[in-house]
Amino acid sequence: MAQFRTLLISGASRGIGRAIAERALAEGHRLSLGVRDPAGLPPGPLLEAVRRCPEQVLLHPYDACDPSRASSWVAATVAQFGGIDGLIHCAGVFSRVGLLFEAGQDAEIEALWRVNLMGPWWLSRAAWPALVASGDGRVITLVSMSGQRVKGPLAAYACSKFALMALCQSMRNEGWDAGLRVTAICPGWVNTSMASQVTALPASAMTQPEDLAALTAQLLRLPASAVPFELKINCVLER
């Protein structure tokens, strides 16, 4: 029997987050979408649902850099839907800052950590009571293969993703006895704007956002006894 969840999804306006939200909408879940600019949500199924089905989709302003936005978004979601039983972290930013960063790049590193680590941390903390109260909560975090190994000189981004993996493990430990299950999805190159500058691999050979949306849909269907903690997905062979 299908279980329809109330899902908080960050980063739902584009890329992987948008694909996951569109798939979740098609499968009948209730969605609370946190986006930086609600007025800028692109045309498509999500915008149509916001306009026609407010009982199923809530659109709320959310800035991962601002912890107060996390609290207000969670409160608005609980007020509209009565609870939350799924949280999907898709908001994130990329950086090319390396180990030997230049003077003045400290600010970029700090902003990266604020979005990639503290954003999910603040949002998870705000949603935690509702997730625990559900008795069968789910947290799914789009991490990256950069949270598994470091390739090349991109130190700042990889460090933020390794830290995000640690946060996922901490959430798994904290929520286990309450029936809350956490999964870290770690893809390599995905055909999104973040990978638009990649020339060594055609976009068609990359993992597609819709593939990650299909995996997420399956995770939401699995019972607590069968939810994996990590999914490593790569479109290239790494030795």
Automatic annotation (TrEMBL):
Transit peptide found in the keyword field: no
Regions annotated as coiled coil: none
Pfam families assigned to the protein according to its UniProt record, in alphabetical order: adh_short
Tagged with keyword Oxidoreductase: yes
Database matches in PROSITE patterns: ADH_SHORT (PS00061)
Family: Belongs to the short-chain dehydrogenases/reductases (SDR) family.
Descriptive protein name: SDR family NAD(P)-dependent oxidoreductase
Organism encoding this protein: Cyanobium gracile UHCC 0281
